[in-house]
Amino acid sequence: LVGAANRDAHEAFDAWLARQDFAHKVVLRGNHDPSRADFPLSNATYATKAGPLALPLANGQVCRVYCAPHGSYRAFGADLARELKAGTVDVFLSHAPPRGTLDVTYQDRSAGSKQLLATLRDACARGGRAPPLWVCGHIHEAAGIVEGTGAVAGTTFVNAASVAANAVTCSAAGSHGCARNEGGRAADVWL
């Protein structure tokens, strides 16, 4: 999500989302994002609280997505564990990666969520099914794709925090990516 303090950047992000040819668009609240944001052009769903979404597909099936935006990790543990145990999560979207997966910082430290990892391990140990796809962000320098092993074999993990291959220099804090919007102005892009 584009930091809402910059209205032009937010509107540019919404316009970009509107041009993406997908039936459903979900934006998770990140650690620098407002508690409310509207996406009038793209009609994207802005997830600020943990919970499931049922997205109807053109073939009549439903894609079951579980969202865990920034700040929701302590609140969803039991709810997510139930969903995983029932095998009802097709896609898991979380702001942060689970600890130990696509989460190594520039300081060479694992900075993923211990809560996410514990919930996933516990649910799988109790007969649950890890989701086939887990998309996260937050640790921009750890962007990439890996296949799960062991209890999470069959899960593809994607850290989509990377903005673009030609991203401009990031802020001194190094906590977000930077990109140029269509007008050539710098736009902060957050995930």
Quick structural overview:
The chain is α/β, with parallel strands linked by helices and 191 residues long. It is built from three helices and ten strands, in the order H-E-E-E-E-H-E-H-E-E-E-E-E.
Describe the model.
With 191 residues, the protein is an alpha/beta fold. 20% of the residues lie in helices and 23% in strands. The strands form 3 sheets. The protein has a 6-stranded mixed β-sheet with strand order 3-4-5-6-8-7. It has a two-stranded parallel sheet with strand order 1-2. α2 links the parallel β4 and β5. α2 packs parallel to α3. The protein is globular. It starts with 6 loop residues before the first helix and ends with a strand.
Task: Please describe the structure with a list of short key phrases separated by commas or semicolons.
6-stranded mixed sheet, alpha/beta, two-stranded parallel ribbon, 3 helices, 191 residues
Provide a count of the helices. 3
What's the β-strand tally?
Answer: 10
User: Can you list the strand order of the major beta sheet?
Assistant: 3-4-5-6-8-7
Q: Give the overall shape.
A: globular
Overall mean pLDDT stands at 80
- What is the CA-CA span between the terminal residues? 6 Å
Note the main sheet. Answer: 6 strands, mixed
| Coarse structural class | alpha/beta
Report strand %: 15-25%
Q: Residue share in helices?
A: 10-25%
Low-confidence stretches: 164-191
SSE ordering:
HEEEEHEHEEEEE
Radius of gyration: 17 Å
